[in-house]
Input
Amino acid sequence: MSKIKDDTSSIWTSLAKKGVSRRDFIKFCSTMAATLALPSSFVPRIVEALEKKQRPYAVWLEFQDCAGDSESMLRATKPTIAEVVLDVISLEYHETIMAGSGKSAEKALQDVVKNQKGKYIAIVEGAIPTKDGGIYCTIGGKTALDIAKEVCGNAAMSLAVGSCASWGGIASAKPNPTGAVGVGAAVPGITYVNLPGCPMNVENVTATVVHYLTFGSLPALDGEHRPLFAHGKIIHNNCERRAHFDAGQFVRKWGDEGHRLGWCLYEMGCKGPEAHFNCPTIRWNGGTSWPVQAGHPCFACASTNNWDAFGPIYSRLENVPGAGYQTTADKIGATVAAVAAAGVAAHAVIRAAKGTPHKEEKE
Amino acid sequence: MEKRVYVWEFPVRLTHWVNFLSILALSITGFYIGAPFLHAIRENQFIMAQMRFIHFVSAYVFTVSFLIRIYWLFMGNQYSRLNQFIFVSGERWKNLIDTALFYAFLKKDLPHSPGHTGIAGLTYFIMFLIFLLEIFTGFALYSESHLPGFIWTFMGGWLFSIMGTGTVRLIHHLLMWVIGVFTIVHVYVSWHNDVIEKNGLMSSIFSGYKSIEE
Output
């Protein structure tokens, strides 16, 4: 963690000092261009920007969270994306990994907010509770809501990393006892990007920062304030198991033959057809794997309100509210249809017994 | 004297049978899409892809059929117009009550209804709304695999601003059952009334003509 005063070096110089080779640096810039869905002609622009631009100051705030997004960043592998992230941005404050503690740590945060007002990046991890004056999450005697208002309100831009910071995440799932919301809702009017996911994907976060450094603007966003380069397509359309979906080859039970053969997880409740994310192409942990590759259905972790809005994790169709745990929509439908069939049959019997009105007599 | 009356004009009969065929195709393929009951044995079978293709094509056919029928609410003859479904006159309400009493064996005669009975008119009006909701929920689910755009928002994407995708799917699925239950009752009542009135009601949806007493 460098001190604010020392830090005037450009991103490339500081990377070089850390022993990152020129080749790895260019590779990183190419990866970023590809992640941002930019043509290769943009690589020189990214290189130029990272060679010249000073590292932006950044603070990392943690609220109602599990530190999973910090883990996601720190566990990133080759070409030491974590290093790149930590070096692309000059991280002045991060509760989990900073050496300082107590008053000196809070002072580091205050220094950035005061001295770099309007210039630093606020990265927020975790939901912000708003109920009962925000008392459910306090740091150094201040509520998360007040800290977010102060820190995000004075930042050049805020990055809401992970689903909790983006829209409240699991903390905001029904019945949402703490009134948890995301950064955009907690601090209205700020410039921010949602980078949801459970956890966030560090490559998308880095790419967003690189986009900001290269073009001086935020990447194009979708209706949920997520960058389109990462959330423009549904998982289903780039899924490696898509061919099995179209063919009609599905996993029906955990560990059955289809599961061992890597068939489609649709019947196991996969939300890939609804979830917009670039997991199948960018993958996780340095491109090692991602949930569907590992044999687990997607549960739309990066889609707003996925816990409440996307139905059960292991089923495609939710049950009728109030009808009970075992009662599926099809059971209800079949029962009603059977009652209707029995009803018309009974009516026909009564009609036959009563006889029909004799119309022909009138003629 | 009985007279042959041209009750169901061509667009009415056409949309009726297009609806029947597309709803049948949509229900079978929709069931499969909801819970795939056939599994491919070979790699080169494309069961889900074909089911989805049939479902989406039938959905467009059904939507167009629905729109033609809506158009005919304003252009058709006296038996197919809007006021047969949305009651403005007390006479239609009286017909509804009398028909209900007849079906409940509380009245001796079926009221004279050359077109739709009052019950049928009101039921079809509700079915029109259910069809419309089925179209909106269907296109909303369909839109999820497309890039956002005005046309998708208009065709059903607006539903996502009031409910989650899970609820939209549940409604889409449950309404299929409602249409199925309607079909059971609809076919029975048509047969029943054909027997009662001996007016050729069942064949009228093919020919358009009913025998109606003067």
Remarks:
- The beta strands of chain B are 2-6, 209-213.
- Chain B touches chain A through 47 residues (CB under 8 Å).
